[in-house]
Amino acid sequence: MMENKVYYSKLLLFGEYSVICDSMGLTVPLNLFEASWKFYDLPGNSTVETALNEDLRGFYAYLRKLRESNQLLAELDLVRFENDLNQGLFFDSSIPQGFGVGSSGALCAATFERYQKNQVALALDAGDGFQHLKKALAQMESYFHGVSSGLDPLLCYLQKPLLIKNKTSIDFVDLPPDLHFPGFSIFLINTGVVGKTGPLVNRFFEECRKYNYYKRIVNELIPANNRCIDALVANDAELLFNTLPNLSLFFFDHFKAMIPNAFHSHWQHGLDSGDYFLKLCGSGGGGFLLGFTRNHQVTQKYFSDQDISLIHL
After folding, report:
1. Residue that terminates a domain, selected from 131, 147, 172
2. What is the per-residue pLDDT for 123?
């Protein structure tokens, strides 16, 4: 084994799908899950570790193919990567896959940091440095999802809350530690279903080709999404909870196929009661749901009565 940097999972608080259409986004590190590089002793008796090593070889082959065609944006030392794989390298991760919390983002961030050739100081005060890094990381993560914005691996690499203002402007943002806001709380619900990002994102692209659907995204989803972000950054609970019902209802009406059926009634109960509001966490289709409440005890009791555990942030 070896000591190495720990990479945490991520949480996209706001911006699912809408960031593709140039909305704002707000993403934060999530220290509930973590990952790091490790080696297993060769010849290796662990089936799990060997399988993880084999998974990495597929990723390595993808990067090598890009390099051979002069398309790889990141300057990576792939010879060292291959040598490490032959020595039993694997990515030891507790970040659940298909749950919208950055399992592939953490791997891409870790790969970039470990194998980048030019150890130059990136422009981490935002600006053009962010954009170049985001594009390189997006290309790497495309191996896992087919299409990537690069936001997940960027957040996992920087490990600081990021405010996505639009497609070309990203900056750091100050938020309370561990997202502990006065007056309201944020929670996760584990649906127990693994989501698949690629097909869902492709479905969204297909829907956006329909004029009326795209018009609703621009005129309804994006304004609600952006108001929620402005409210959260300003710690304006009143504005946030005046806007969340619109956002939650839009997801329920237009992204219902991405919400596991078993949770439709719970989503509707939040809208009807006003005790809490749910939204997608990541691309949906399973994984986690993200919730907001000002009635913590009432919300806790409701889900406890349904035998559903909440993960409070």
Report:
1. 172
2. 46
